[in-house]
Design a protein that fits this description.
Blueprint lengths: L6 H4 L29 H17 L7 H14 L12 E5 L6 E4 L3 E5 H6 L3 H16 L2 H8 L13 H4 L6 H4 L17 H18 L5 H19 L10 H4 L3 H11 L9 H8 L3 E2 L7 E3 L2 E4 L4 E4 L5 E4 L4 E5 L2 E7 L6 H10 L13 E5 L2 E12 L2 E13 L2 E10 L7 H6 L1 E2 L2 H5 L4 E7 L6 H5 L8 H8 L13 E7 L2
Parallel strand pairs: 1-3
Antiparallel strand pairs: 2-3, 4-16, 5-6, 6-7, 7-15, 8-9, 9-10, 10-14, 11-12, 12-13, 13-14, 16-17
Length: 492
């Protein structure tokens, strides 16, 4: 969830990027081979898309941590042969709380701080960035575009409802331009064969750079463990989140494949160096983008808060908060506001579909915790049945409004009534009390155990499980004196 200062403008801009981590060449030209360097067309695509991608993923971070990631990324990217100098590549650490990494033509490589925080050594960082570079070198997105039935380029604020809310329901194709975009949905899936191919190339890059190629399997194992933990904590049966594991399918099944590829290879991991360099990195939500605490979302800068219904969980993206559950799904975001809430609600409905008009039966006005509000619900036919689409908007000032866009089975629009009614302004004191979580790299002392270290984690639940996943420790695996480990604490 961003500060929203520029989101309304950004949502109307088009991103010259085929949504697959890489971009298709203009005009459908011939696709370069994996050994061919960056072309002028690819460089142009990357340069145009880069600032928009940074905005979509929370912006580029600066400082020593970002410089370190850039250095490692440039060193591994050179192994691809796409460019013959480190300066050929732009590597960015982006301020996003989701586990994601991607690269686009022109030598632009990205990883989120959350994914870096999950890693446990420099070889893993190089492996993830090398995997993304491999997608670019192999021109995977261009090849996906050749077989795609639609080459529609989406704007930064656009979304694919069929992916976010409705699974494969064709209704998603009808209202597919809805403003329901979280940063984790910016990229489409690669095929399994492409993922395995990128793993193989990434391992080759690691080996040629002198890193331990087994790092590819250990970082995949950490991703699989994090996905499973997230699913359990959020009450989901499905361990796949719409994050790195969604755009890079099934890390669990790829662990053994990557490990077998790396058999007989050795190299450095630079574990202690890596951990010391990421010490203090923001973990989880950045207060500037709002914070999810259990079922509550609170944004200290925007001075607002709401609560998801019981049994629902939230994913905080850079442009929206997604609310997920068995009874329906919703997102909270904003759009341009001219001072009229009814016009605002109508404009959100109008932007849902280019194929059909979606209009509420009526728009009602009310007051929610002192906030002027307006809402409407439209029933929409889909091949799998009817659904209710609800827009519930709130005015925070003459030029600022926010809204929920929710989808539920027909007749179940009241599922989110409690959430709609929970929206409120927060006090300055409440805003001041919002403190980020950060990584604290500590050295294990004599007498320390996994249990004692885990109790220092800044969470009220699953402390030991969180600690084990964060440090790549299997169940039953202990720690030893002198070892460096990560814990998550409240920032100072």
């Amino acid at each position: 969830m961003p500060s929203f200062k520029s989101f309304a403008t950004a949502s109307t801009a088009t991103l010259s990027l085929a949504l697959g981590g890489c971009a298709a060449l203009p005009g459908g030209g011939n696709i370069p081979g994996a050994s061919e360097p960056i072309t002028q067309s690819e460089a142009q695509i990357g340069a145009e898309a880069h600032p928009q991608l940074l905005a979509e993923f929370g912006g580029a971070m600066t400082g020593p941590q970002a410089q370190y990631v850039e250095q490692v990324g440039q060193n591994i990217a050179v192994q691809s042969g796409l460019g013959n100098a480190r300066s050929s590549f732009t590597v960015s650490l982006v301020n996003s709380p989701v586990n994601n990494a991607f690269a686009i033509p022109g030598g632009y490589v990205y990883t989120t701080r959350q994914l870096v925080a999950l890693m446990n050594n420099e070889a893993e960082l190089a492996g993830v960035l090398g995997h993304e570079v491999a997608h670019v070198a192999l021109r995977h997105s261009q090849r996906r575009q050749q077989t795609a039935t639609q080459n529609q380029l989406l704007g930064v604020g656009a979304a694919i409802l069929s992916s976010v809310l409705l699974g494969s329901n064709p209704l998603g194709q009808q209202i597919g331009q809805a403003a329901l975009q979280g940063s984790q949905m910016l990229t489409l899936k690669f095929s399994r064969s492409q993922e395995l191919e990128a793993d193989v190339k990434g391992i080759e890059y690691l080996n040629s750079a002198g890193y331990d190629p087994r790092a590819m399997s250990t970082v995949l194992a950490s991703l699989a463990a994090q996905n499973a933990l997230d699913a359990r904590l959020q009450g989901r049966d499905d361990a796949r989140m719409p994050e790195w594991a969604s755009t890079h399918p099934d890390p669990a099944s790829r662990v053994q494949s990557a490990l077998s590829r790396a058999q007989g290879m050795t190299g450095v991991t630079n574990r202690d160096t890596f951990l010391s360099r990421i010490d203090g990195l923001t973990y989880g939500d950045d207060p500037a983008q709002g914070i999810v605490e259990g079922r509550q979302f609170i944004h200290p800068d925007l001075r607002l808060s709401f609560q998801a219904p019981q049994g629902f969980y939230m994913v905080n993206g850079t442009t929206a908060v997604t609310v997920n559950g068995q009874g329906g799904k919703a997102q909270f975001t904003m759009a341009q506001y001219n001072g009229n809430l009814q016009t605002y609600v109508n404009s959100v409905f109008a932007g849902l579909s280019q194929q059909q008009q979606i209009r509420p039966a009526n728009i009602q006005t009310t007051t929610v915790n002192g906030l002027p509000a307006a809402y409407g619900t439209a029933r929409v036919n889909g091949s799998s049945g009817q659904v209710d689409v609800t827009v519930f908007a709130y005015e925070f000032s003459n030029d600022r409004a926010y809204h929920f866009l929710a989808i539920t089975p027909a007749g179940r629009a009241s599922t989110f009534n409690q959430m709609f009614a929970s929206m409120r302004r927060i006090t300055p004191q409440e805003a001041a009390n919002v403190v980020p979580r950060v990584l604290d790299v500590v050295t294990v002392q004599r007498g320390d155990t996994v249990s004692s270290l885990a109790r220092r984690m800044a969470y009220s639940d699953a402390q030991e499980e969180r600690f084990r996943v964060l440090n790549g420790l299997s169940s039953g695996q202990g720690v030893s004196a002198g070892q460096k480990v990560k814990i998550v604490v409240r920032g100072r």
